[in-house]
Amino acid sequence: MIKQHLKTAWRNIIKNKLYALLNIFGLGLGIACCLFLFLYITFHLSFDNYHPQAETTYRLVNELHFETTEYSKGASYAMYTALKSEMPEVDKAAFLLSNQAFTIRIGEQLYHTGQRAALTSSEWFKLFDFPWLKGNPKELDEANTLALTRKAARQYFGDTDPIGQVVLVESKHPFKVVGIVDDSCTNTSLGAELYLSFTSIKTLQPGLFDDFFTAWGYINSSNTVFVSLHDTSQKDAVERRLNRMTVQHFGEETARIFNFKLLPLTDTHFDTRYGGTVQRPLLLVLAIIGGCIMVVAGINYVNLSIAHQARRATEIGTRKILGGSRRQLFAQFMTESTFVTLTALCIALILIYLMLPLANQYLLFSEPIQVLSWYRFSAFSIGFWIVVSVAAGAYPAYLLGRLNVFDALKNRLPIRNRTGRQALVVLQNVVAQVILMATIVIVLQVRFLRHTDVGFDRESVVTIPLPKTAGDGRDAIGQYLDSNPRVAAFSFCFQPPASRSRYGGTVRFDEREAWETWPARYVYVDSAYVHTFGIQLVAGRNIRQDAAMPEYLISELMVSKLGFDNADDVLGKPLLAGGMNDEMKGVVVGVMRDFNTQSLLTPIEPTLAGFKADMQTMLAVKLATKDVTGIVADLQGQWKTHFPDAVFEYHFLDEQIEALYEKEILQQRLIWITAAVAVIICVLGLLGMVSLMTQLRIKEIGIRKVLGASMVGIVRLLSTDFVKLVLIAVVVALPVAWWIMSKWLEDFPYRIDIQWWMFASAGAVAVAIALATVSWQAVRAALANPVKSLRDE
């Protein structure tokens, strides 16, 4: 019987290729979208939960309670040693100095590690499940040793076995390769590509103060401390002891600012306050969007199935006369539905196979996803197929299976009731239009973030990382740039405006005894910084690098926070900035126009700029020519001359600023893709509905044509109802989309204002697409020969 049902299903598909193609493609597209979102969501939910002690492992983080609370993922080495040796609740502890950048030489070839290097010990690999493919983690406790991930080993050594090979770090410190670390699991927030022995830190950073190892307050975001507890119930006790020890080291008044906490390992990927990259609410939103896409695809499938099966009324009546039962007819239609959905699933899997590498390369390049378990993915796909087959196929099968034999033979179908079909069309279009309206708002907001600068000029600026030991080469490069007419300005600085850096701290102004209760952001600059980036001075003068005492520029907001209305009133006043120039007291010589030191995702903060030679790690060049290729090539030649042991890398400032909005750009692209999928499926759904109505009214259309109706009149007859349904969907979608996007925009300190035309344009697009889709099918019906539609009467 099943074999016969399958043969019948296949014959119907071959006989009606267009409807079958629309049905299968629309459903396959929806399933592919849902499967992709399943892979994306499950990949991120799996981050770092595969480590054996994941449930009892925590990262040491802290809150700083100023006027507003700040969050830091950093700690100090002294805290690590205290946790390891003084707290019996701690089972294991590990320290990682992360985000380190080095130049390495292998043979005659130079490489720059970016910020993918780290310093650690074997303790790190006892706590985390990063298997060593070769070597023993114990060897990393010896000085001048390093381990590479498999990817890095292949990049640096090709097919040669790297074990025992010598790598020159900073071209002068020989390090022996002692291990290869498995990096096949990319679902981690803790990975590095090069692990250098922590015992070599003095070799790599000879200027490092001894306070790094002993001072409780030597806190840096690169200092990563993880602990594993014997029992999760001990978490609160460890936090209380840490904060009591902070009082002992800082004193009660200063310690009141700090609150050290243990962040669960399984939350580190999701807590953006401490460097997490994905928020759990985003994953929930994507899951809801995936469900909506599947609802749209399911409605589309039902409509097209009914439109197609309506042509088989005579076949249904004949089957019943020949003894076919309602159960047999239901089984027949369910078999066809199962076959169609299985074909759609196969198409979806092919789309996933073809599109996943492209998505990783162009969409998810910062965190490419991988199929963690083919078994789970297969089980989800099969389960999803079964649910879709039953949910989408049962209604058409039930509706057509219960036809009265006489109604079927006379083509009087129960599907003439319009209310249910219209409700499905409205619901389908509401979902699609909400997504489309949200897409327009998100695109405009992200565009605003990417192209709006606050207080500085980013056009035609190239940034080049400086080697750690620039020496006289920096002066030579400076002389070359100063004499080059293609260079408008240049500056040696720590970071350009709008970077990921969050250096800062509180300050003590003038003769005030107390430190301010708010933090300022520190910007390490030279005297050319304000000119290079077009930062306007509103009072005073620029700093002098050779001044007898430190000189500072402060922002207008900082003037206001200090309690002054007039910028001139702060000039010449002493200022003590914690951590800057060894906390030497300087003087305020100028006031800058406000600019954002980070991205527009955070509000402008009080900013302080001062000179510090050992913090000048970057060269920023403002170009006065459009011949970027030529000037960059000349710079590279100069670089090789003056810095033969350094890799020449350059980046455009506007590209660096765009990278600050990586998460928002990803959201924009994901929602744009889902909107396109929803619109395509809606088009197919409208095509199915107009096909159904044409099928039901084919004889009416023939009679109207015989009586003289024009093609325009028939097109209007068939199109008006559907356009009305789309307009109703627009009206329903408007308040829903407005509310959702208003809530979404609340998280941005700098945001666009929602305008009526944003939603109106989305509605206009939806109506235009609907009108084009319906009119195409209506024109076909209007051009049909009326004799063919009336010959059976």
TrEMBL record:
The entry's localization annotation reads:
Cell membrane
User: Could you tell me the keywords of this UniProt record?
Assistant: Cell membrane, Membrane, Transmembrane, Transmembrane helix
Q: Which InterPro entries match?
A: ABC3_permease_C, MacB_PCD, Macrolide_Exporter_MacB
Q: Name one Pfam family in it.
A: MacB_PCD
Any idea where the MacB-like periplasmic core domain is? 21-244
Where are its TM segments located?
Answer: 21-43, 282-302, 329-354, 374-401, 422-444, 670-693, 714-741, 756-779
Going by the entry's taxonomy, the superkingdom of the source organism is recorded as Bacteria
**Keyword Membrane set for record:** yes
Q: Which residues are in the ABC3 transporter permease C-terminal domain?
A: 288-404, 673-781
Keyword Membrane set for record: yes
Q: What is its main location?
A: membrane
Q: How does it sit in the membrane?
A: Multi-pass membrane protein
Q: What is this protein called?
A: ABC transporter permease
